[in-house]
Amino acid sequence: MPPEPRPIRAWARPLRKTALDIFGAALAAADPAAAVKRRLERLDCSRFKNIYVVGAGKAAGTMARAAERALGRRIAAGSINVKDGHGAKLRRIEQFECGHPTPDERGVAGARRIVEIAGAARKDDLVLCLISGGASALMPLPAEPITLEEKREVTRLLLACGADIHEINTVRKHISSIKGGQLARLAAPAAVESLLLSDVTGDALDVIGSGPTAPDESTFANAADVLYRYGLMDRVPESVSERIARGCLGEIAETPKPGDPIFRRVRNTIVGSNRLALRAAARRARELGFHTLVLASEVEGETREIARMHAAIAKEIARAGQPVKPPACVITGGETTVTLRGHGLGGRNQEFALAAALDIAGLENVAIFSAGTDGTDGPTDAAGAFADGDTVRRKPDARRYLDENDSYHYFEALGDLAFTGPTGTNVMDIRIVLVGARQSAARRKDPAKSPNA
């Protein structure tokens, strides 16, 4: 049997507690229920005969509950798709719990119900659309003759090759009957009010949830470029490659573009985002006495490379006091990608923490935390993980676990996974780098005198 991991050092405990405190402030700022309530209070609903509620995403249940509280009996009908375990107690709006990140038949059934409700709306009606992260996978309605299994295969191939969310959604929109503005087309001529909880860098309306009610600037040619870029055109199902090829030739109608008349009565509003969450996290870090820097909200790229960059910043702060002096907190947001090389279990946040642990090994008073704001990291039940300068000493076989993409089991053995459960929101990931105050020579000799002891 492998040796038991060594116990955590005293200086690491307060840093971990602080990281969770800061992360909690970010989650509170990204509360979609409060955001939906504020928006609906400003909306004049008296001019509509019927109000229909549709939507999808990991936070759609929380958003739908807020809509029910605000609109009550004004809701004529409604249906949403949510991830398994992320549902809410609803009275007037139907709810389909579905598979994520791989779409399933429950998602198709829910999407058909959404189409049915949106299609029933008339000119004097309102369709309230609630979209949050995960909506792309949770609202699958493949364009015929593509089957769900074939669409799942496309999603699997794109995820495995390291395509980012923008690229994945570009392909999804062009093999779907509901994404890329097509839900707005189905709802026309009714008014459409879409409330969006952004989980994409840049908060692009046409990318959030694959933009079901937003004009789509991407084309069949763009979708083809993505598949060729990753060498997938000859690997995707024939029905998919044929549809995209026909679309490129103009034989299939494009998704609705900016300027299309169907968008005259459509309004898309972002009610929550990673930027707002980062601001709240920074405020909390400053309240706790840390010199704080929000470095970026649009961090993308290969997870391991981004982790090395964060580790390099931690080293520079610890050794040179740059770009901020200790005690320091550096916060970033966004969403990285993992290229699968092994057969282990983990998510991008856990892999980030494991890769960072290798680079900060040996540094005292340094900790790094990364977690998904939705409470689930990849296919696991953890939101993310902690790493510090002592992590590799406690369990030296970190490199082997990283090579196998098995970050979950590495941190599970250490007790360093972060569990929040479903949070009811989803505004991408948050990464927190903490460097504690420098210790005086006397305190280094006598750890009992350290404020981090």
In brief:
This protein is of the alpha/beta class and 453 residues long.
Strand residue content:
15-25%
CATH topology description of the largest domain? glycerate kinase, domain 1
Count the domains. Answer: 2
Q: What general outline do the C-alpha atoms trace?
A: globular
- Please trace the helix and strand order, writing H or E for each element: HHEHEEHEHHHHEHHEHEHEHEEHHHEEH
Q: Architecture of the largest domain, according to CATH?
A: 3-Layer(aba) Sandwich
Mean pLDDT: 93
Largest sheet: 6 strands, parallel
Q: Given this structure, which CATH class of the largest domain is correct? A: Alpha Beta
Could you describe the 3D structure shown?
The structure is a single chain. Helix 7 (165-173) packs across helix 9, helix 9 packs across helix 10 and helix 13 crosses helix 16. The protein has helices at 12-29, 32-41, 60-71, 105-120, 135-138, 148-161, 165-173, 182-187, 220-229, 238-248, 274-287, 303-320, 348-360, 391-394, 398-403, 407-414, 441-445; strands at 51-56, 75-83, 94-98, 126-131, 191-197, 266-272, 291-299, 328-334, 366-372, 384-388, 417-418, 429-435. The chain has 453 residues and is of the alpha/beta class. The model is unreliable at 440-453 (pLDDT under 50). The protein folds into 2 domains: 12-28 and 275-449, 3-Layer(aba) Sandwich (glycerate kinase, domain 1); 32-141 and 176-218 and 255-272, Rossmann fold, CATH 3.40.50.10180. The protein starts with 11 loop residues before the first helix and ends in an 8-residue tail after the last helix. It is built from 17 helices and 12 strands. The strands form 2 sheets. It has a 6-stranded parallel beta sheet, with helices on both faces. Strands 7-8-12-9-10-11 form a 6-stranded mixed beta sheet, sandwiched between helices.
